[in-house]
Specification:
By secondary structure, the protein is mainly α. The chain folds into two domains: 212 residues, HUPs (Rossmann fold), CATH 3.40.50.620; 82 residues, Tyrosyl-Transfer RNA Synthetase, CATH 1.10.240.10. It contains 13 helices and five strands. A three-stranded parallel beta sheet has the order 1-2-3. A two-stranded parallel ribbon has the order 4-5. Helix 8 links the parallel strand 4 and strand 5. Helix 4 crosses helix 7. The chain binds tryptophanyl-5'AMP. The site of tryptophanyl-5'AMP has 26 residues, from strand 1, helix 1 and helix 7.
């Protein structure tokens, strides 16, 4: 299967990104043709600092590598280095109803959050995302729950394109979403009713590169619920349930087993143990970050190779798209 997914270089990459997306990618690359992108054009739709963009891109690449994405198996590249993404996005804009874009949850949330910066890019964001996916004739897209609606729109646009320009034959496959059973929506540590998000207060998320002291501090002060039993119940105990999911995914123990282990022990002891689990799990991330930061040319080479491989596929697709749409 051809797989495509991406992460925006905005803010710090966190446990939600890892458990919802990155962790799945590592397994998928074993048996599939995987393309993993750092989607820098998407990151420009909200306020950002141009001086920090390249640093953020490098940090995402290092996170991919540290998580176990293998550049010999998967294509890794930066979106803006393959211009066909923008070309296809423009063409798909011409078949995308505005109404579809206006009803997107992420657009509604972000236009509330950035009231002074509701730019056209924010509205058209899912069209660029559809272009990312369709450019590679992708069959499946592994993401967290928050991107499901965008992948659904991608299917709609693929169908529309095929109907209009391909005699109803399947030119673009309609890609499926792949989501983990648990972890598709990791919640904020400070408000477990909201998803963990890069653009929120750093206390609300654990970055993959956080120092051990910072991890302990954030977990010990994570919002928990009334009562003291460590029990999974999303409606009554959203805070503890979120921490249980993280514990379970990082240790591969079942939630039931963790509940049994902490029966009668209270939140404090559970959180202390979770902090240690997270610190140990993320130790290689911190180490590899230091290592890769000294290997500038190696990291650059990975992106150059990835970009060349991505471009071959993207150029072939665009040649066909232009012909189908009556362009030369
Ligand atoms: P981004 O950068 O916000 O997030 C990257 C990935 O992390 C997942 N994710 C989460 N999963 C679980 N719990 C959370 N709290 C959480 N927060 C984020 C996201 O679902 C995503 O998989 N639009 C995309 C980037 C993108 C893309 C694409 C993805 C652009 N083009 C094409 C796939 C295919 C985004 O903003 O992801």
């Amino acid at each position: 299967m051809r797989i495509f997914s991406g992460i925006q270089p905005s803010g710090a990459i966190h446990l939600g990104n890892y458990l919802g997306a990155l962790k799945q990618w590592v397994n998928l690359q074993e048996k599939n043709e995987c393309i993993f992108c750092i989607v820098d054009w998407h990151a420009l739709t909200v306020p950002y600092n141009p001086q920090e963009l390249q640093k953020s891109i490098s940090e995402k690449l290092i996170a991919y590598l540290a998580a176990g994405i293998d550049p010999n198996k998967s294509i890794i590249f930066v979106q803006s280095q393959v211009k066909e993404h923008a070309e296809l996005a423009w063409l798909l804009n011409t078949i995308c109803p505005i109404g579809e874009l206006e009803r997107m949850t992420q657009y509604k949330d972000k236009s509330k959050k950035y009231k002074d910066n509701i730019n056209a890019g924010l509205l058209n964001y899912p069209v660029l995302m559809a272009a990312d996916i369709l450019l590679y004739k992708t069959q499946a897209v592994p993401t967290g729950k928050d991107q499901e609606q965008h992948v659904e729109l991608t299917r709609t646009l693929a169908r529309k394109f095929n109907q209009k320009f391909s005699n109803k034959e399947e030119f673009f496959p309609e890609p499926d979403s792949i989501m983990p059973e648990y972890g598709a929506k990791i919640m904020s540590l400070t408000d477990p009713k909201k998803k963990m998000s890069k653009s929120d207060d750093p206390k609300s998320y654990i970055s993959l590169f956080d120092a051990p002291e910072s991890i302990t501090k954030k977990i010990m002060s994570a919002e928990t619920d009334s009562g003291k039993d460590v029990i999974y119940n999303v409606t009554k105990k959203p805070g503890i349930s979120n921490l249980l999911v993280i514990y379970s995914l990082l240790t591969e123990k079942s939630i039931k087993d963790i509940e049994t282990e902490f029966r009668g022990k209270g939140y404090g002891e559970f959180k202390k143990s979770l902090a240690q689990v997270v610190i140990n799990y993320l130790e290689p991330f911190r180490r590899k970050k230091k290592e890769f930061e000294t290997k500038d040319s190696y990291v650059k080479e990975i992106l150059e190779k990835g970009q060349a491989r991505a471009r071959v596929i993207a150029e072939a697709t665009m040649k066909e798209v232009r012909e189908k749409m009556g362009l030369i």
